[in-house]
Design a protein that fits this description.
The complex is a heterodimer of chains A (about 110) and B (about 120). Chain A is mostly beta strands. Chain A is built from no helices and 9 strands. In chain A, the strands form 2 sheets. Chain A has a 5-stranded mixed β-sheet with strand order 1-9-8-3-4, with no helix packed on it. In chain A, strands 2-7-6-5 form a 4-stranded antiparallel β-sheet, with no helix packed on it. The chains are: A mainly beta (about 110), B mainly beta (about 120). Chains A and B meet through strand 4 and strand 8 of A and strand 4, strand 5 and strand 10 of B.
């Protein structure tokens, strides 16, 4: 199965932009890139997903490299509420199937007031 | 609109016992997945149910079994509990039409402690 690699932790100042990187060098052409986050004592929460093009929604932006071997989740203005563990996930036939979602250990984001 | 609800929120069992965890999916969702999350780790996929059948399974022993009811709610059963089964058990739902790429909605989990 294709795997993702993320830094264990990152820090950001409040109201600054945050760029969370993810490497997925073995991604296949049919794998979608998904991001979820998990706040303390809660279940994971969907953030964004994409296939090839950059994506924007009310929560964040997803920038996907042209070769799709890496992607970056962008939080435009970090707030204290964004402190969470962020998971980069691949979903597709070469990543265990669309139904199975494989989480890594994610990136723990700390937001400093 | 209620999201995914799970019960119980916390429970304590002893080794060798059996446990049943319950999940009600978000309204309109017919696909339910279960995950195990050990402390400090990411969630690990256990299995997924659709149309009352197990559709895909992760690397978990047969002690872990499940069921989906006609109303799409689901149960996770774990037999012969081990200390290593202590974890947060998460349920996620999605509409089948979006099952390949769409958003998963997670409940807040059931925290199981095995003594």
């Amino acid at each position: 199965d294709a795997k993702t690699t993320q830094p264990n932790s990152m820090e950001s100042n409040e109201e600054e932009p945050v760029h969370l990187p993810c490497n997925h060098s073995t991604i296949s052409g049919t794998d979608y890139i998904h991001w979820y986050r998990q706040l303390p004592s809660q279940g994971p929460e969907y953030v964004i997903h994409g296939l090839t093009s950059n994506v924007n929604n009310r929560m964040a932006s997803l920038a996907i490299a042209e070769d799709r071997k890496s992607s970056t989740l962008i939080l435009h203005r970090a707030t204290l509420r964004d402190a969470a563990v962020y998971y980069c996930i691949l979903r597709g036939p070469n990543s265990g199937g669309y139904q199975k979602v494989t989480f890594g250990t994610g990136t723990k984001l700390q937001v400093i007031p | 609109d209620a999201g995914v609800t799970q019960s119980p929120t916390h429970l304590i069992k002893t080794r060798g016992q059996q446990v049943t965890l319950r999940c009600s999916p978000k309204s309109g969702h017919d696909t339910v997945s279960w995950y195990q999350q050990a402390l400090g780790q990411g969630p690990q996929f256990i299995f997924q149910y659709y149309e009352e059948e197990e559709r895909q399974r992760g690397n978990f022993p047969d002690r872990f079994s499940g069921h989906q009811f006609p109303n799409y709610s689901s149960e996770l059963n774990v037999n012969a509990l081990l200390l290593g089964d202590s974890a947060l058990y998460l349920c996620a739902s999605s509409p089948e039409t979006g099952a390949d790429t769409g958003e998963l909605f997670f409940g807040e989990g059931s925290r199981l402690t095995v003594l």
